[in-house]
Design goal:
globular, about 5% helix, mainly beta, about 130 residues
Length: about 130
Amino acid sequence: MVPLLLCLITASMADQDEIAKTITVDKWGKGDYTSVQKAIDSVPHHNTLWTRIHVKAGIYNEKVKIPLEKPYIILDGESRRTTVIQYNDAGECIASSTFQLFAENFMARRITFKRVGIRGPFMAKSKFLNIYTP
């Protein structure tokens, strides 16, 4: 099995002075949340200040969706090799993506998005990342 991998890297990250809040995700319970999606859900709608979501090393088996009304999010892992968001879903192409981005002003670094376990006729149609732009 050859997993699909993606690492989003930004040219520059917002300066520490520009980050209004940091939320920590740790799958072992040593952060603010154990789920990346729950951390994203905690960001206020129509946010206008950068919110850094620091995702501790680990494999997070979940779908992640950043809706249009949640801009200014920095998804920051510890290493693209050790911070992985993955999901196994062989459903309809767009709905089964591991990561969906609808919001503007988003950055990701040191994190890998992965779709696992897809074999057979679904492989050619599978997606693990959807980014929507206005």
